[in-house]
Amino acid sequence: MSRYNKLFKITKYKVAMGNNTYDSDDSDNSDDNDDIHSNVNNELFNSILRHPYIERMNGNEYGNNELNINSGNALKYLVIYRINIYNEVNPVVEFYILNDFLSTTSNITEFTNHELSVMIGEKRIKGTIQFKENNYSIIQVRNNTDTSNWLNVWDILVNKHYFGNKICEHVIDFFYSHSDISNLWIGSNICIKPIILYTSIEEKYYEYIKKTKSIQYCQSNKESLIYLRNFKENDNIRTICFIHDRDIDDSLHTIEHNDYIIYKNNNNNNNNNNKETEWIFKNDNKLFSFVK
């Protein structure tokens, strides 16, 4: 099973016929969807972007939010998130994480924590949960367009790093147990979650990449194909890719019939153990690249 399919299993959804569809074996969410379908016009329901994890925050499942948010002087971890929409059609839940959650022992209703108070955007406390005897306050940030240190579930659960900066184990543990916090739905379909790939680009292209979010024609071979890979030391480009999982191709020629392929590049080395996996794209229609 590929890492992508493992991630699908963790986050309780599967890919079928090129679409992300609801997994009927997950009984926790099926009741919610049935109730909504019975009360809301189907056409309207199918056009609404929903975030079920946050919509349930006020329920008994998470206890008394107001009391838990400011309970004494205990350390509170801040799970800061935003919904970022790429290309006007791909909404993604992203989390602000350095290598650990921000944390505070103060009353966070006034957002007096320094790192949080200087963050651009409107902040809203959505609630709090307890996990392994720790309090986690869930905070939404709106109208924020920063690009640094906003991670998605692929960064956290698959890569386990951001530009090589490792993520703390307890952060990974939290998201493994609460991976549905990253699920967004439109009607009965779950929104695609992107994978994150890396590469290295010459500094002279930085301004162009910052402006266009594209690295096409910026790589050293100067051809139109885009080559991406898992992180290597000194990589300076992180690319968000809205693609589905697929088998590894055994020939570069298959790119002629596909928008992208996954290929084992032997780098002029016949040792199979040294083959590097590359994702090769014809265009950047579903790619968004950012400079470190």
Which SSEs are present, and which pair or pack?
Layout: H1 3-10, E1 13-16, E2 19-22, H2 27-39, H3 42-45, E3 49-50, H4 52-55, H5 65-69, E4 76-86, E5 90-96, E6 102-104, H6 114-117, E7 122-131, E8 134-142, E9 150-151, H7 153-159, E10 161-162, E11 165-166, H8 169-177, E12 185-186, E13 189-190, E14 195-199, H9 206-212, E15 226-229, E16 237-241, E17 248-249, E18 260-265, E19 276-281, E20 287-291
Parallel strand pairs: 4-8, 17-18
Antiparallel strand pairs: 1-2, 3-12, 4-5, 4-6, 5-9, 7-8, 10-11, 12-13, 14-16, 15-19, 16-20, 18-19
Observed structural traits:
globular; 9 helices; four-stranded mixed β-sheet; alpha+beta; 292 residues; six-stranded mixed β-sheet
What does this structure look like?
This protein is α+β, with helices and mostly antiparallel strands and 292 residues long. The chain has 2 domains: 171 residues, no CATH class; 97 residues, no CATH class. Helix content is 21%, strand content 32%. The strands form 6 sheets. Strands 4, 5, 6, 7, 8 and 9 form a 6-stranded mixed β-sheet that branches. A 4-stranded mixed β-sheet has the order 15-19-18-17, with no helix packed on it. The protein has a 3-stranded antiparallel β-sheet with strand order 3-12-13, with no helix packed on it. A hairpin with a 2-residue loop joins strand 10 and strand 11. The protein is globular. 24% of the residues are buried. About 12% of the residues have low confidence.
